[in-house]
Please model this.
Amino acid sequence: MTLTERSARVAAAAKLHRHTGRRRAARFLAEGPNLVEAALRRGLVSEVFATESAADKFGALLDGAEVHLVTEKAAKVLSDTVTPVGLVAVCAMPDTRLDDVLATGPTFVAMPVEISEPGNAGTLIRVADAMGADAVVLAGDSVDPYNGKCLRASAGSIFSLPVVTHGDAVDAVRQVRDAGLQVLATVLDGRVSLDDVDLSPPAAWLFGPEAHGLAPEVVTLATSTVRIPMSGSAESLNVAAAAAICLYQTARARRSR
Model:
């Protein structure tokens, strides 16, 4: 490959830092050995850019991948971290939709609604993976899960379970409910305490943003509204913390069946 061709590939990959670029190309960037290795295991990697030192250091995990050696300067262009490690992969975006998820007969789904903070979204995906959820559905005007910060916060879990987006939150909830899952909406004044909710039937959890919670039109579609009992002085929890508590409780109930 000539220097001009390599530069053109780097420039094309750098456009994937932007949401519009990712959407148009159906590609995203995975940076660092953990994410690159996870993407390689899923067979999503189309090409890898690595500095000489990174290629030497991570050569074992890159076996069989198409690797382009780049300069430190080019690696910085491809990175969105403060201290780049010099390893970035261009990955194909999984073509999975809500219909595909529901067709598998899921029994345990996490549904963050209108979540805009990528760190929270990525952490929630990681928790859902750890607790054995079948899928994560980002409903409404939520963050792009292939945003670099979200990918890093997921710690590779985004490659371990289906993560889909559905722009119409009301439609997403209706579809999930019609698929036979009870829909549990987390709200501060929920009718049922998390301690008392029946988690034996298949369930989808709705989590809203801390600032304003779930929209009323979404809450009205829920099977039950659930509150997390809190004995301390904190008024609320952020979405990732609330999700961790509820999803753990669900996983615990499933283990005890």
In short: The longest strand covers residues 45-50.
